[in-house]
Amino acid sequence: MSRFRSPGVRERCFREHFDRNALARDDLRTADYSNAASYGLRQAVVSRWLSGLVGLRIADIGCGNGLLTTDLAKTNRVFGVDLALGMVRLAGGRGLLGAQARAAQLPLRGESCDVTLVVELAQYLPHLEDLITEIVRITHPGGRIIFSCLHRSLARRMWSTLKPAGPLNPYLHSPRSVQRILAAGGVRVIESCVWFQPLRVRSTSRLGRCLGQLAGSAFAVMGIRES
Ligand SMILES: C[S@@+](CC[C@H](N)C(=O)[O-])C[C@H]1O[C@@H](n2cnc3c(N)ncnc32)[C@H](O)[C@@H]1O
């Protein structure tokens, strides 16, 4: 998959890639850049901040196969939005109300969600501000926003040290840049965390591939939309 062509081509590549992924295996825990341990860490963060919720409207943007919010869907209405129709179908099978759409143009009314969740999506989108504007728009004042993605600074360090084949994804972010944009959009940041997340790195050397397992990391930010 060529990642950094024109926006339209890139988006089509991602959609086809994730559609193939959905057809091949219903398991994002072993996505091409990640593994089951990394998935468990994302799930732990979501559980820590959101477990025990009942009767709320929750949006899971870039929901993939819906695994992350399957438990929440048992006691809440969870809207799962994803670009790949195959993923939307899998999420529907897990009890989410699925819709195929772009994250930058969500088919949800303004202030219609109590909780909005965006996990491991931002690295596919060229405009972080547009994504954050859209998730703030759909979140009700007083509602919670959870944003998580791969960490830019540590990935940069890894690329300059290991020199893996292929370019570093330019759409990685830091907790600080995400917090700044959230704050500008009227979101009060309550908590954030960073964790080690092993990555599968396509390196020309065996050492590079091994070290990639040790060098990745991700972060999550939780905030409240103020009125
Ligand atoms: C790495 S998966 C993450 C899935 C899930 N959130 C998780 O953390 O397990 C990224 C998902 O984002 C979706 N995606 C990529 N670009 C998108 C876009 N522009 N709008 C909506 N979804 C998109 C992909 O189809 C894929 O299912």
Topology:
Elements: H1 7-24, H2 36-50, E1 57-61, E2 77-82, H3 85-93, E3 97-100, E4 113-119, H4 128-138, E5 139-150, H5 152-162, H6 175-184, E6 187-196, H7 206-215, E7 217-225
Parallel strand pairs: 1-2, 1-4, 2-3, 4-5
Antiparallel strand pairs: 5-7, 6-7
Helix pairs in contact: 1-3, 5-7
The protein binds S-adenosylmethionine (SAM).
Entry summary:
With 227 residues, the chain is an alpha/beta fold. The protein has 7 helices and 7 strands.
Output the strand order for the largest sheet. 3-2-1-4-5-7-6
Beta-strand content estimate: 15-25%
Distance between the termini: 41 Å
Multimeric state: single chain
CATH homologous superfamily name? Answer: Vaccinia Virus protein VP39
Helix content: 25-40%
Largest sheet: 7 strands, mixed
Structural class: alpha/beta
Cα shape: globular
The number of helical elements comes to: 7
The ligands found in this model are: S-adenosylmethionine
Number of domains: 1
Architecture (CATH level 2) name: 3-Layer(aba) Sandwich
Mean pLDDT: 86
Number of strands: 7
Rg over CA atoms: 17 Å
CATH fold-type name: Rossmann fold
